Structure formats: C-alpha cells, structure tokens
Amino acid sequence: MSLQVPFHTKANGAAAGGATKAVILVGGASRGTRFRPLSLDVPKPLFDVAGHPIIWHCLTAIAKVPSIHEVYLIGYYDESVFRDFIKDAVHEFPQLTIKYLREYQALGTAGGLYHFRDIILKGRPERLFVLNSDVCCSFPLGEMLRLFEEKDAEAVILGTRVAEDAATNFGCIVSDAHTRRVLHYVEKPESHISNLINCGVYLFATEAIFPSIRTAIKRRTDRPNRLIRYPSAENLESSFFAQQAADDDDEESEKRSEVIRLEQDILSDMADSKQFFVYETQDFWRQIKTAGSAIPANALYLQNAWQSGSSELAQPQPNHIIAPVFIHPTARVDPTAKLGPNVSIGPRAVVGAGARVKESIVLEDSEIKHDACVLYSIIGWNSRVGAWARVEGTPTPVTSHTTSIIKNGVKVQAITILGKECAVGDEVRVQNCVCLPFKELKRDVANEVIM
C-alpha cells in the first residue's frame, strides 16, 4: 500500500527517469520502544529535533542531490501517520516526489526494499540511497556519490570512527586505508575488529543490491529449519497433527525468510564479492535510539544550523540567548529568561520570567514558569514546570554514544524526560528521571522511572 502526493513541477513524469532515487527507512509502531515515553504520542521519525521532525533532516540532505527526484519512506506505520508530514514536505521540497510505502509486516531493513522493488526500479534508476531515519548526521550524500562514481562502485557505506570500547555496539567495518575498499563487515562483533563503524547511510547500484537481497532470501529459504517428522503408521491422528505443525512451521519459516536485514544478511557478503567502499565522515554522527539521545542530536543539528548561518535560529543576546537556540514563532519567551546553548522551544510553548533553559527540548504547548530551571531535559507536550522548580539531567561526554549513567550502582537515564501532560510542582526538584505521561510530581525525585 502507498500514500502519495503527486509531483507537478516536471511535465509528463520526467522525474521518474532520474538516475538516483532515495529510500528512508522509518520502521514501525512495534519498534521504537526505547524511545518511550516520547514514542507513545508521536512516531519517532516525526519527533521534533532542532525544530523539525527527525526525517525532515534526512529530506533536507536528499534535496541537495540534483539527480534525486523520488523519495520513498518505507515502514509499517499506518498510512495516516505520515500524510500531513508529506503534504508539508512536498511544498518545502518541490523538486521531490515523496511516497510512503507501507509494509504488511516488519520485513527488516532489506526485506522492505525487496518487497517494493518494482516501485523503486520504475524508471530504471541506476543508484539508490538508503538512509535509516534514526541517525543524526550531516548526511554527506554528494561526497558518497562522488566516491561511488570515482571507484565505479556497487556500494558505498557511510562510516565514522568511535572510541574502541564503543565500537562493538555497532556494525564494524574493516577497510583498505589506501583504496577505501570494504574488506570485512561484522554487525556488533563479540570482540574488537575495528573502530570504523556503520552510520546507517548507504548508496547502492540497483543492479547489485536487489540480486544480493534475492540471494540472501534464497539462502534463508534453503536452510533447513526443522527435523523431518516421520509419522507413526499406528496413529493417523498424530500424523495429521504432525503435518499441521509442519505446515505451521513452513508458514513461520516463510515469514522469517522475508525478514532480511541489510546489516546482518547483506553487507558482509557484499564485502566479499562486490565493489564495496566506505566514505568516512569527519563530521558529526549520532544514533537516535533512546528518548534521551534526542538531546545530543538536538545539539548537533542546532550547531550545524548555526555554523551554516540558518535564519531559523534566534539571534544571540547577552544574558538572554546563548546560541544556538531555536524558538518557534508561536512560542512566548519572557525577555528576562535565559536560553541556551542547544535549546529548542516548540510551538505555543511559554517560558516565564527569570527561567533558565539549557541543553533541552521544550515541546509544544508546554509551560516553564518563572524562575524555574531546566537542564539536559525534554519537557513533553502540554507539560508544566512550576515556579522555582528544577528539572535536570546529567551532562555526558560529547564523544559518548550512550545517554545512560551509573548512579549508586544502577544504570539510569542521564537525560530527564517528562512525557505528555506531566506537571512538576513549584519548588520541586526532578533529577535523572523518566516520567510517563499524565503524572504530577509534588515531591523531589531522583534516578527513577515514574510510572
């Protein structure tokens, strides 16, 4: 099933024959559990980071590649979820046709591509960008395309360097330092093999990626997944049930064979057999997996917007705005409040006199009352922070790829998160907590999940 807004700026569908297309993998409702409590109210790809939905940042990068005219969002959310976003996006990115393709079940990062291969291959594109929606980076797609053409590649993966102790949490790439060819790829290896990791952004030759997925599906289907049953001649009834169970197993096997993941099932084979290269970015990169990871992503995108001279950001003002800060035009911020750095204030939010907000996201219709302090936190939709209250998380190192910390021997969230319609009383202190929606906090609380 697909949701589509027609593309009018090119006559007779000329855009369909473009040499490059792009896919953004958006996942579905059964995933994103680590993004709770925020994903209880908004699908993760549509959560606002630095004033825009996460997938808007992907589209902004795609729109800068002149040869791309068609973009597909692939996932298994209901079609209605992305309808309004797509309507807005086609006005903002008029050169792009944007379609949502809904999987009938979770098919994996490669299974969804293969399921919709006929739609993707319409117009015979030569290349296909594939972006995971839950990463935050500068998306150097132009540079990846240049490397692709220079090397006559069949695949290019975006890579970055991380600390050695963090590398095994990601897909690890071993490459030739001189040619940049990928020699070996392992998803989340048990022992250290490289600190060059997979950023979740790819460029494939269409003639290479779809046969690779087909081979992986065939390998999965051919692999025996159960012992053959030999029904007893004396018991026809048990024979029937054995056959029934075998049929159920076949159905389950068929479902499993359709769940194909780029990371586990495709990339290591490509390293063995294809012209597969890595473009190593020196720029910023973060995963947006947990709700707390939206805070470092917000900071990175705001800093990037500030460095590129974005007119969307608030102008710095002594003792009021420490750049970079995004304030939605409909928000109301008292001139005696102090904001920044790395703060996003959403639509219709209110920040009172003398309030201090730093390294935080304040979502729409929420209110921070006078003299309150909000640090390293996310204030949920329609939530209230009382006067002289203090809502704070704990800063983590810029190089860290986790937003968890150890407090009193227990792992807790470093970012404090208030879900939708939470209330923090006057003079109450909330530290390193995750608060589920519709909760009222009348006393000080630290290092807890408030349910």
UniProtKB/TrEMBL annotation:
Residues 21-214 form the Nucleotidyl transferase domain. Pathway: Nucleotide-sugar biosynthesis; GDP-alpha-D-mannose biosynthesis; GDP-alpha-D-mannose from alpha-D-mannose 1-phosphate (GTP route): step 1/1. One of its GO terms (cellular component) is cytoplasm. The keyword Transferase applies. PROSITE patterns: HEXAPEP_TRANSFERASES (PS00101). It catalyses: alpha-D-mannose 1-phosphate + GTP + H(+) = GDP-alpha-D-mannose + diphosphate. Pfam families: GMPPB_C, NTP_transferase. Residues 321-448 form the Mannose-1-phosphate guanyltransferase C-terminal domain. GO terms for molecular function: GTP binding; mannose-1-phosphate guanylyltransferase (GTP) activity. It comes from the Eukaryota. Keywords: Transferase. Its EC number is 2.7.7.13. InterPro entries: GMPPB_C, Hexapep_transf_CS, Mannose-1P_guanyltransferase, NTP_transferase_dom, Nucleotide-diphossugar_trans, Trimer_LpxA-like_sf. Involved in cell wall synthesis where it is required for glycosylation. Involved in cell cycle progression through cell-size checkpoint. Belongs to the transferase hexapeptide repeat family. This is Mannose-1-phosphate guanyltransferase. It comes from Neurospora crassa (strain ATCC 24698 / 74-OR23-1A / CBS 708.71 / DSM 1257 / FGSC 987). The lineage of its organism: Eukaryota, Fungi, Dikarya, Ascomycota, Pezizomycotina.
